[in-house]
Amino acid sequence: MDKVRIYQPRKNAMQSGRAKTRQWLVEFEPGARVRNDSLMGWVGQGDTRNQVKMRFPSKDLAIAFCEKKGLDYEVSEPKSRTTKLKSYSDNFSHDRDKNWTH
Predict the structure, then answer these.
(1) Does the first or last residue of the chain, that is N or C, have fewer Cβ atoms within 10 Å of its Cβ?
(2) Using CA atoms, how far apart are residues 95 and 98, in angstroms rounded to an integer?
(3) What Rg do the C-alpha atoms of the chain give, in angstroms?
(4) 21 half-sphere exposure, CB direction, 13 A CA radius
């Protein structure tokens, strides 16, 4: 049976926004062993399913697709983000805990 992973991608370290992190991805687990090509020296596989990534707007649609196709799936829940609300003026507040330094 084919094994797939359902997850929400994380934000790339090089991007400031979270544009492509809202969708859910369905990705096949690697099935074949990685081997070196003797002629070119590249690393490759005979299995091309690991190149397929399907995007879904919700987790429920991704799970429904896997169940319809008879795929064995594993769902990885995203970790919740904690954000601290900051204001630039707080740097110069009189109630600041530490002295301001350069």
Answers:
(1) C
(2) 9
(3) 22
(4) 14
Number of domains in the chain: 1
The pTM for the full model equals: 0.69
Phi, psi of 7 (to 5 degrees): -155, 165
Q: Distance between CA atoms of 12 and 21, rounded to whole angstroms?
A: 9
Does the residue 66 lie in any domain?
A: yes
Residues with Cβ within 8 Å of residue 90, at least 6 apart in sequence? 96
> Could you give the CA distance from residue 54 to residue 26 in angstroms, rounded to a whole number?
5
Q: Can you give the residue range of the structural domain that contains 33?
A: 3-12+20-78
DSSP string of the chain, one letter each residue: --EEEEEPPPPPTT-SS-GGGSSEEEEEPP-SPPEE-TTT--EE-S--GGG-EEEESSHHHHHHHHHHHT-EEEEEPPPPP------GGGGG-TT-SS----
The stretch 34-46 carries a mean pLDDT of: 81
Q: Pick 16 or 26 by higher pLDDT.
A: 26
